[in-house]
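Example: Universal stress protein family protein.
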Amino acid sequence: MKKRILIVTDFTVRSLNLLKEALTTSHTKGETVDVVLVHGIFLPDSSIDLLFYSKRTLIKELTGSEFTSACHLIKNKYQSTLNIMTTDLFSGLSQRSFDEYLVKEQIDEIYMGSWKSKSCHSRSFDLNTFVRNTNKVNKIIVKLDSEPSTTVDAYQDMVELFFSRGHVVPSTDN
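Written out as structure tokens, the predicted fold is:
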């Protein structure tokens, strides 16, 4: 069975623990998945900035080398489970626009962290509010065994990605 999963990301290696949890769960069920990594960002305010706005360029700007390396490692580790992985930006301002995005992208399941996402851009916003309030798809909240570090330590985040285990928090609002 094939399904499409949305992962809320802030482009940190830590957020890829959600991807690892989704792929591990799907692998044990014998499913193949398409994954959409999504980050919330407001569109530019000025018309000139909008003229030169490029989603692809902004995604390249937001994804660091550690994040990209971790994505490649995950793709290699879960190549039998992971069919396609794409990155997207959501710029809607309402719950309705988020729900329509889920329908348009044919999302079956959403994985989100129990922690607050980091703001990686001046126009970033946290998608978790929209995720919590949607009733269009199944939501899975993952809590990691360790707390997020306050220091930026890419090595520690990579170690955590491959040697720690998250667990699904029972959701009462599905």
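Residues 2-169 form a domain with the Rossmann fold fold (CATH 3.40.50.620).
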